[in-house]
C-alpha cells in the first residue's frame, strides 16, 4: 500500500500516465505483488486533507515481508517520476472482520479507515469490538458491498490498523450517505484512536 501526492500540478497528467502504465508494471513484473489498483482522493472525513492518491497491491504468497524487502531493493535502483511524492507506504496483513463482494460488481468507491488502539492492554477487546460492532456497519447499511480489516506489519504507515470498504457508489456520495444512515452505531470503544478517514475513487486497475 502506497499513499502519494503530486508535487507539481502541471505534471499531474504525465505523472498519472507514468504511474499507471510504467510504475505499476515495474512493481508487478518484478515481484509477487499483483492486482494493482490506484485511487484518487475524493474527500477526507477527518480534519486532515489526506494524500491525493492511494495504490494497493495484493499478495497471496507465503513470505510477505521477504517479498516486500526484495521489492524495496529493486525500487532503490530505478528512477521515480520527479512529480511523485510518497507520503507513506507499507505492508499489511488481513485480520478480523471481512465480507466479500460479488466478483461481477464494479466497485469504484473506497472508504479508508486508519486507526490505532491507544491501550495495548485492551488490544484484544478493541479488536473484538471492531470486528463485531464497528466494522460491519458500512456493509450492513447496504451502501458498501465489501469490507476488510488489516494490521500493519512493516513500513512507515502512520497507523496500526486499516479498514477498507468498497462501494458501487462513487465517493463522496457513498460516505455521505453512510454518515446519514439512521442505523449507524454511534458507539466507539474507549481504546479507539481514529487517525484518518479518507474516501477515494478508483482511477486505474491492473488485474494480473
| Helix segment tally | 5
- Rg, rounded, reads 17 Å
Largest sheet, order of strands side by side?
1-3-2-8-5-7-6-4
What's the overall average pLDDT, rounded? 94
Helix percentage range: 25-40%
Shape: globular
SSE ordering:
EHEEHEEHHEEHE
Task: List segments where confidence is low: pLDDT < 50 over at least 5 consecutive residues.
Answer: none
Would you count the extended β strands for me?
8
Strand content: 35-45%
Biggest sheet, in brief?
Answer: 8 strands, antiparallel, barrel
Q: Distance N terminus to C terminus?
A: 17 Å
Q: Which structural class fits the helix and strand makeup?
A: alpha+beta
List the SSEs and their pairings.
Elements: E1 2-6, H1 12-29, E2 34-44, E3 53-58, H2 64-75, E4 84-99, E5 109-117, H3 123-134, H4 136-140, E6 146-155, E7 161-167, H5 173-180, E8 192-206
Antiparallel strand pairs: 1-3, 1-4, 2-3, 2-8, 4-6, 5-7, 5-8, 6-7
Written description of the protein model:
- With 208 residues, this protein is of the alpha+beta class.
- The chain contains five helices and eight strands.
- It has an eight-stranded antiparallel β-barrel.
- The chain is globular, with a radius of gyration of 17 Å.
- The chain starts with a strand and ends with a strand.
Amino acid at each position: 500500500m502506497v499513499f502519494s501526492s503530486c508535487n507539481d500540478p502541471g505534471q499531474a497528467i504525465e505523472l498519472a500516465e507514468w504511474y499507471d502504465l510504467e510504475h505499476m508494471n515495474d512493481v508487478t513484473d518484478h515481484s509477487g505483488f499483483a492486482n494493482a489498483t490506484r485511487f484518487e482522493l475524493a474527500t477526507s472525513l477527518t480534519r486532515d486533507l489526506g494524500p491525493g492518491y492511494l495504490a494497493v497491491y495484493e499478495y497471496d504468497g507465503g513470505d510477505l515481508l521477504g517479498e516486500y524487502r526484495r521489492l524495496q531493493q529493486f525500487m532503490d535502483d530505478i528512477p521515480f517520476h520527479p512529480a511523485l511524492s510518497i507520503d507513506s507506504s507499507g505492508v499489511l496483513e488481513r485480520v478480523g472482520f471481512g465480507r466479500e463482494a460479488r466478483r461481477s460488481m464494479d466497485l469504484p468507491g473506497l472508504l479508508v479507515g486508519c486507526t490505532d488502539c491507544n491501550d495495548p492492554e485492551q488490544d484484544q477487546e478493541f479488536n473484538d469490538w471492531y470486528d463485531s460492532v464497528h466494522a460491519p456497519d458500512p456493509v450492513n447499511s447496504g451502501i458498501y458491498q465489501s469490507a476488510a480489516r488489516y494490521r500493519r506489519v512493516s513500513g512507515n504507515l502512520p497507523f496500526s490498523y486499516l479498514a477498507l470498504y468498497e462501494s458501487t457508489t462513487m465517493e463522496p456520495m457513498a460516505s455521505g450517505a453512510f454518515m446519514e444512515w439512521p442505523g449507524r452505531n454511534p458507539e466507539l470503544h474507549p481504546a479507539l484512536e481514529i487517525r484518518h478517514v479518507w474516501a477515494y475513487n478508483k482511477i486505474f486497475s491492473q488485474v494480473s
